[in-house]
DNA sequence: CTGAAAGCGCTTACAG
DNA sequence: CTGAAAGCGCTTACAG
């Protein structure tokens, strides 16, 4: 009736509780044959460790923490996080790890949460998203010695290991594709400009534009919302030398931009080509379907979880570069009208 | 340096550890004046309880559990859950509660997760979403005596308290609006038919159609995905007596339907009116913007959390009816062409 | 109303 | 390699 404890297993196996603990945790201090016997008995009894007891005694909490920024209007819209979480969880649960979620209004509160989690031992490690250049959270985490992995570019990760995808390369692929279609006036609608990955993209955009001699290449920074994307689009398309192609930093803004273009009487892709970064199912639902920079975000999450678990286990971890987002051409891009 | 424990507070206050525990937890067993003094000292020392120790000693884990179904293709798309989670968390964190998230492939695994959480004491209660008529999870939860609240209609909640919104009323509002615009052939594209709230809507749709004498009122059940919505729409619009108005059970399907209609050369709303259930920002981004049944999903989550916390606290809880979704007319609906 | 004590189920030095 | 023991920080009967 009652769930078995290590004491029950110890009695059954005729050893001490300590021996059971060592055996089950793969620690030295018990012979291989006894270990095997103990593990067999534990399985037979359906033993599952009590996480609270383990955490209290200084062991692992078997929980990983993730903070999310309290919804700017985009949350609940950007599919990115939900997909990331889904991938994270897939990996975590195979290792019997839980995912603790907490909304935070800002970085200061986020750091306070980390501090509490750490002194509570309620999480064994955390994942850091949306890093900014010069992000205070990085130092705080290092100081706490809380195992952490950054989901973002190494340029902003400090000493922490990170998992990232080289957005610069993907951006160049997209711009070169547009250039090959004859576009000379290409503009970009970016997300929040203080995010590290936005900076990477902005830099790459400037570089490739210079290389290709695209003199009108501007970036308008927004807040990732549909409204922000619509406003930026309206402004760009109202220019006397309006661009013939637009690149958006997320799918929501691209869809908003498409709608604005159509309202302004422009035909996509005849008058204007559009590319979205991040390819959620919505991109295929609009008309015309959006050409997008796609990648497997759930897999990204899975790899992030794997890296974090390794860091928690005390293994030496180094930053890993994930698969690049690559261009998925659909109906929203076409040759530049001459 | 080290975080203070009740032992530190007890020493400081000149009382026993037990007294501190009683004082801090609002339990009887300590006088009001001593209680006030102890609380003051605890605050001054920056005391925060260790959740692991508390859980181990049989107290509250201060964590609430939520399972999500491993992504059908809709996840990461339907904004509903992200908004719900955001609202949940807002309430939970003001009570120092955490939210533990776990993906599950099916109900059997979900029940196993509840069982584990319960014997672990790793959560104090759970929230149940997407209930089906005759849902095995309800019985399992009652058997475990795990405090739980259903996010869904009382018809499928068994003995559990639920928080719900009367979808039947909202559906009638939408259909009557269409009828007032002169529509006689109205069809509905529903979500998964075994979900309890789908059943509520389907029933209401049949009833109001009969009352208004709309003989062609059919419901096609899908899986909530854009593809499913597109397929259903194509089928409906290919009929010789095609409907002049369509009602979709979520925003994703409505957007897909809009796109299909436009591809088939129909003009919205001149040839076809469209209404979406659940009003995410995307509904305003497409062209024409979608008329939608809106409600504040984050508030819904907040209320759900409040109800669950009351249940956990052992207060008597009864099901509460949340705000109705109401019609938000936009460009996708108009008079029926005669 | 208050205090001293046992116990929750683990982990980990510490002796053998 | 193994065992006996202390301790993690709480809660809660149980005596006074």
From TrEMBL, chains A, B:
<dbReference type="Pfam" id="PF13377">
    <property type="entry name" value="Peripla_BP_3"/>
</dbReference>
<feature type="domain" description="HTH lacI-type">
    <location>
        <begin position="4"/>
        <end position="58"/>
    </location>
</feature>
<dbReference type="InterPro" id="IPR028082">
    <property type="entry name" value="Peripla_BP_I"/>
</dbReference>
<keyword id="KW-0238">DNA-binding</keyword>
<dbReference type="InterPro" id="IPR000843">
    <property type="entry name" value="HTH_LacI"/>
</dbReference>
<dbReference type="InterPro" id="IPR046335">
    <property type="entry name" value="LacI/GalR-like_sensor"/>
</dbReference>
<dbReference type="InterPro" id="IPR010982">
    <property type="entry name" value="Lambda_DNA-bd_dom_sf"/>
</dbReference>
<keyword id="KW-0805">Transcription regulation</keyword>
<keyword id="KW-0804">Transcription</keyword>
<protein>
    <submittedName>
        <fullName>LacI family DNA-binding transcriptional regulator</fullName>
    </submittedName>
</protein>
<dbReference type="Pfam" id="PF00356">
    <property type="entry name" value="LacI"/>
</dbReference>
<dbReference type="GO" id="GO:0003677">
    <property type="term" value="F:DNA binding"/>
</dbReference>
